[in-house]
Structure formats: C-alpha cells, structure tokens
Design brief:
Elements (H helix, E strand, L loop, with lengths): L1 H33 L3 H7 L3 H34 L5 H13 L2 H12 L6 H6 L8 H26 L3 H8 L4 H29 L3 H6 L10 H8 L4 H32 L1
Helix pairs in contact: 3-7, 3-9, 3-11, 4-7, 5-7, 7-9, 8-9, 9-12, 11-12
Length: about 270
C-alpha cells in the first residue's frame, strides 16, 4: 500500500511539474492570441510596414538558408570524415554562435565589415559598403543560424555507416558521385530538418541584425525589428506581426517534428 502511494505521489509531482512548464510556455502565447481579432488582421496584414517586413524577412531567410546549405553541407561532411589538428577547436567555433549574445555577434560583424572595420575599410576603398544594407541582414542571419544546420549535418554524417561509401567506391563510384547520390539521399530527411530550423532561426533574428544592419524600413527592417519599432508607435501592428511570426514558427516546428519522426521511423 505504501509503495502504491509513493508511486502515485511521484506521478502527481511529475504531472504538476509538467503542467507548470506547459502553462509557463503557453500562457504568453495565449495572451497574445486573445488580443487578436479577424478585423485586426484584416486591417493590418495589408499594412505597408507589415508587408515590407514580412517579405524582407522571408527573402533574406531563404537566401541565408541556401548559403548555409551550399557551404555547410560539404564542410560538415569533410569535417565529420577527417581527423586534423584543431578539430575540437573547430567544433567549438561552430557551436559558439549558439551561446554568443546576438548583440555581441552584431557588434563583431560591424567591427569586421563596417566602413572602418578590419575588412570593411578595404571594401570601402573599392566602393563596397556592407554594414546597414540588406547584405548585412543576410550575413547576420548566417552567423547566428548556421550552427543549427552544420551541427545537424555533422551528426548525421558521423552516424552514417562508412560501409555505404566503401561499397560505392569498390563499384567504381567517384567521391563526388558517392556524396551526391548516396550520402545526401540517405541523410536527406535530417538535413531538411536542419535547414528548416536554420530558416526559423534566421527569420527570428533580432540582436545581431539591429547592431550590424540597423532598422531601415524596406532595407533592413525584418519582422522582429518591425515589432520593436511598432511597439513605440502602433501597438496593433506589433501584435499583427507577432501573430504572423507565431504562425510561421508553429508551422516550421510541426514540419520539423514530422520530418524527425519520419527519419527515426526509417532508421
């Protein structure tokens, strides 16, 4: 009897803790959604500020994700299959943006690419300005979001049995052909999940962007920056953009969950 009471007590404590976590994570979103009405969305979604911020965020996030995939995929593969001095340091460097405060990342990028920055002063001589442009938005997004993809890709390649590659090579397949037609298809679901998470992180980037790119409507003002600006003027615009971001984020997380479950099932 005492044992059963202990078991039920443990389950009760566990359920209570889970309830606290769920309430803490969901109540802020509920408070946001309760402020939204169809009339509010119909009024402010066509708003020029909302539209510009929405399309700039989506466009730059897609570009950032594409660049990370194009460079990060082969880099993660070679890193996972190679042993070289300083590999642990490279691992740390890849993970660093995950723990680095975004404002610090933005300031570091500004000191690198600004007009008087380490590289920016040379680019400025030939008429190339990066800071406070749309290019700066993309660079900031890549810096903070790339670890989400590279870490995922590296883990997938490390888990993949090298026997697939060895078998392909014995059959006369080149390294490039093996990578493109055997390795990538086997890891496609997990890589897609990582790419979507990279897109989501880029879409929500704020700190590094405002430090490095500024908050210029139509040029560098992404959705998070538009929320920040609207909070000082039109609160309804801020709510509308926030709801759009919540909807996009929810769709992204559901997609990642489905892809992850599919990958685990196939494995």
């Amino acid at each position: 009897m005492r044992q059963k009471i202990g078991i039920w007590f443990g389950k009760g404590v566990g359920a209570f803790l889970i309830l606290i976590v769920c309430l803490f994570l969901s109540l802020p979103l509920i408070a946001l959604l309760l402020r939204v009405t169809p009339e509010l969305l119909a009024t402010y979604i066509p708003n020029e500020t909302v539209q510009k911020a929405l399309w700039l965020s989506i466009t730059t996030s897609i570009i950032s994700m594409a660049i990370v995939i194009f460079i990060g995929t082969p880099a993660a593969y070679f890193h996972s299959r190679s042993y070289y001095p300083g590999k642990s340091f490279v691992d740390t460097l890849i993970d660093l943006p995950l723990v680095l405060p975004p404002a610090v990342a933005g300031l570091a990028l500004l000191l690198l690419f600004g007009r008087t920055g380490l590289l920016g002063k040379y680019l400025n001589v030939i008429g190339i300005d990066i800071a406070f442009t749309t290019v700066a938005v993309v660079l900031a997004q890549i810096f903070v979001a790339s670890p989400f993809y590279i870490r995922q890709a590296k883990a997938l390649f490390e888990q993949l049995d090298p026997a697939y590659e060895e078998t392909a090579k014995t059959l006369g397949s080149s390294s490039l052909r093996t990578f493109l037609f055997i390795i990538l298809p086997l890891c496609a679901t997990g890589l897609t999940s990582g790419a979507i998470m990279t897109f989501a992180r880029a879409l929500g980037e704020f700190g590094a962007t405002i430090m490095f790119a500024g908050n210029l409507p139509g040029i560098t003002q992404t959705m998070p920056l538009a929320i920040y600006a609207a909070m000082q003027g039109d609160f309804d615009v801020a709510i509308t953009i926030s709801v759009l971001l919540v909807a996009i984020s929810l769709a992204i997380m559901l997609t990642v969950k489905l892809l992850t479950d599919k990958w685990r099932y196939n494995v």
